[in-house]
Amino acid sequence: MLKLAIDKSMINSEQHVAFVNIKYKYMKFRHLVAVFGFLMTSLVFCQEKQITLQEIWSGEFRTEGMQSLHSMANGNEYSVLNFNRESRTTSIDIYDYKTLEKTKMIVSSADIAEIQYFSDYSFNKDESKIILTTKSEPVFRHSTLGEYYIYDIASKKVTKVSDDLVQEPTLSPDGSKIAYGFENNLYVKDLKSGKVEQFTTDGEKNKIINGITDWVYEEEFAFVRAFDWNANSDQIAFIRFDETNVPEFSMDVYGSDLYPTQHVFKYPKAGEENSKVSLHLYDINSKNVSQLKVDKAYDDFYIPRLKWTNEANVLSVQFMNRHQNELDLWMIDTKAMTSKNVLAEKDKAYIDVTFNLTFLKDNSFIWTSELDGFNHIYHYSKTGKLINQVTKGDWEVTNYYGFNEKKNTIYFQSTENGSVNRDVFSIGLNGKNKKRLTQKDGTNSASFSTDFTYFINTFSSATTPQEYTLYDTKSGKIVKQIKDNKVLAKQLEGYAMSKKEFSTISINGNDLNMWTIKPKDFDANKVYPLFMYQYSGPGSQQVANRWNSANDYWYQMLAQQGYIVVCIDGRGTGFKGADFKKVTQNELGKYEVEDQIEAAKQLGKLDYIDAERIGIWGWSYGGFMSSNALFKGNDVFKMAIAVAPVTSWRFYDSIYTERYMTTPQENPSGYDENSPINHVNKLNGDFLLIHGTGDDNVHVQNTMRMVEALIQADKQFEWMIYPDKNHGIYGGNTRLHLYKKMTNFIHKTLGDKLEMSKD
C-alpha cells in the first residue's frame, strides 16, 4: 500500500484547511468502507446456517454407503443387500463390475412367505446357498442371537435353521450341513434330511461354553465364532471355554417394571482367573468328539485364533501366553494327531493378533508382524521357514486384502504416504514391483473382486465425503464412479463450516500429529477458549485425513460458537512404528497424559488462545485420559469431561489390560500411579463425569468409585448417569441429551468470555 507523503511546511493556511478537509473525508470514507466490509462479512457469516445438535443426532449429515457388499466367486459380479423403504422388503441383488448395472436379483423377502425382511446374508463356499438373518438380538458388542433361514438358489427352497434363536450359523463348504451354537452347545443340521445332531452336551451358562467365545475373548480378540469347518466338510474344530472359576460381575437392570433385575456374567478383571480353554475336534462321520493337544505345556494361555489350512486334515492354531508377548503358530494333523510349532514370535512388549494369516496352495503362508519395528508382510514356508519379508520401510501395513495366486501378487493398505493417510498398494510375493493403486491423498480402502481384477475403492478426506469408485487393479485406473456424497457436500456449503487444519506439534521430543478447527471468522486479534479432544489408547488414531464423524460436526458447532478445537495423537498411539506405540508399556496413562498437558501448555502460549480457559474431553480410554489430565495438569486445564472412563486399570478386563500392563500383582505401581482415582485430591477445575449403568465393557463401578473418592477428598464436581445404557450411551433421545449436557457444561466453564479482544 502506497502512503501519501506531504511536507506540511510547504502548505499555506487555505491549502492546509483544504488538505485537512480532504484528509478527514478520506479517513471517514475509509472507515465507512471498513464498517461496510465488516457488516457484509458478518451478514454473509450470519446467512450461513449454524449446525445444531438436533441435526447431528437426527442423521441430517449421514453419508450414503454400500451395504453388505460381497464379491461373487466368478470375479465379474458383486452382490449388495438392498432395502425397499416403500414395501419394507429386502433383496440381494447382483451387479456387474464392469458396467455397475444390476444384472439380476437372487432373492427378495417379498417372495418368501416365512420372511418379512432380512438384515444380513452370507454365502457358502460355492455360492449355491445363502444364510439369511431375520430376527436379531444383541448379546454383547459383536455377538447376537438370531433367527436364520437357508435359501437354496437353484431350488428356491427355504429352510429354517432352528426354531430357537441361535448363534453363528455356518454352512459347510459343500453346502450340505450347517453348524451353529445354542445355549453354549454346538449343533449340526443335515439340510437334506433335516436331522439335527447335538455334539456337545456340557454347555451351561456362566460355566461351560462350546464354540462361542466368552465375553473377554469377544471384546478383546474380536471374534465370536470359535469353531471352523475343514475343507472336506467332515470335521469341525472348536474351542471350549471353562469359565467356572472366572469371577462374576453383576449389573442392575432398572427397566420399567416395579423391581429391577440383574444381569450376571463372567468378567475376568486384570489379574483374576481367566477361562480355561481347550481345543477339540468333532468328526462328522464317526460322531466322535476328541481333544486336540500340542507338544508344549502351557500354564495360563489363550487360543486367539484357529483356522483350517488348505489340507483337510491340517488345522492351524495360535497359542499365546497370558502376557501376550509370545505367540506360537501350531499345525495340527487331526488324523495322525501330531502337532508342530512352525512359528514362535516374541516381543519385549506385546504382539497384536490379526486375521491376516493366509495359506497358499502349497500351504506356505502369509503373516504380518512388527518384527523390524513396523508392521509388515512376511512369507513363510509351511514348515515356518522365512522365505521373504515382502514389504519394508518406515511405514505401516494397516490392512491386508489378499493374495492373487495367478499374479503372485499381494494387495494391502498402508501409511506410506504419511501416517494420517491410507493408500491401496499391490506388491509381488517376492517383494518387488510395489505399485500405488489409489490416486487421492486421504483415506482409501478397497473391496476386491474374488479374482482381484477389480476393486471398489472407498475414499474420503477431511474435505471430501465418502466416494465409491470402481478401479481396474492391473492399470490402477478408474473404471467408473459408483456413488458419492455430493448432495451432502452441497448441503454443507450452506453451513459455516471451518477447515480442519492438519499439522504437527513438537512435544517431549516427538512430532505429534494434530488437527485444529478454528471459528470460520477466526481473528488472530481475539482470544479464544481451547477445547481438546483425544482418545490416546494404544495403537489408536484420531488425527486422520478422513471425512467427518458425528463428533466432527459437534466440533464444527463449537467452533461456530467461538471455540478452537484441537486433537493431538500423543505417544502410545499407532501407525508410527512399534517404538512410538509401545513406549507406554507398563505405564498406561503416564506418557500420554504428559503429552496432552505439555501440548496444552504450548498452545496456551499462542496469542489467540486463552490459557485460562483450556478444557479436555474423551470417552472410554479418552475419559481415563481427560480425568488424569485435569487432575495432574491442574495448573493447565480449567475443565474436563470424562465419558464412560476407566478410573483404575484394576477394574478393567484381563486381556486388554495385561497386554499393556502385565498383572496388578506384578506391576502395582504402574496401575496405581497412573489411575485418576488416586489423584482426585489434585482436582482444582470443573469436572463432568458421565456413565451408563448398563455398560458391560467399562463398568459403572469405575465411576462410582471415582465419585466416592471425590466425595471423600471434598471435591465438587458434576456427574450424569444414564440408566441401562451401555458403553455407547445411545437409544431414543439419549445421544441428544448427552451432547446437550456436555455442550452446556462447556459453555458454562469455558465460554463465559468468548471472543475477547486483545485491545
In short:
The chain is an alpha+beta fold. Among the domains are: 354-461 and 464-490, TolB, C-terminal domain (Neuraminidase, 6 Propeller), CATH 2.120.10.30; 499-752, 3-Layer(aba) Sandwich (Rossmann fold).
CATH topology of the domain at 499-752: Rossmann fold
Low-confidence stretches: 1-45
Q: Into which percent range does the helicity of residues fall?
A: 10-25%
Judging by the overall fold, what is the CATH architecture of the domain at 499-752? 3-Layer(aba) Sandwich
Give a structural overview.
The chain contains twelve helices and 44 strands. The protein has 759 residues and is an alpha+beta fold. Among the domains are: 354-461 and 464-490, TolB, C-terminal domain (Neuraminidase), CATH 2.120.10.30; 499-752, Rossmann fold.
Fold topology:
Elements: H1 13-47, H2 53-58, E1 70-71, E2 77-84, E3 89-96, E4 102-108, E5 120-123, E6 129-138, E7 144-152, E8 158-160, E9 167-171, E10 177-182, E11 185-190, E12 196-198, E13 208-210, H3 215-220, E14 227-229, E15 235-242, E16 248-253, E17 261-266, E18 276-283, E19 288-292, E20 301-308, E21 314-321, E22 326-333, E23 338-346, E24 358-359, E25 365-369, E26 376-380, E27 386-389, E28 397-404, E29 409-414, E30 423-428, E31 435-436, E32 443-448, E33 454-460, E34 467-472, E35 478-483, H4 486-492, E36 500-507, E37 510-517, E38 526-533, H5 550-560, E39 564-569, H6 578-582, H7 591-604, E40 609-619, H8 621-632, E41 639-643, H9 654-661, H10 668-673, E42 686-692, H11 701-712, E43 718-722, H12 734-750, E44 756-757
Parallel strand pairs: 38-39, 38-40, 40-41, 41-42, 42-43
Antiparallel strand pairs: 1-2, 2-3, 3-4, 5-6, 6-7, 7-8, 9-10, 10-11, 11-12, 13-15, 14-15, 15-18, 16-17, 18-19, 20-21, 21-22, 22-23, 24-25, 25-26, 26-27, 28-29, 29-30, 30-31, 32-33, 33-34, 34-35, 36-37, 37-39, 38-44
Helix pairs in contact: 7-8
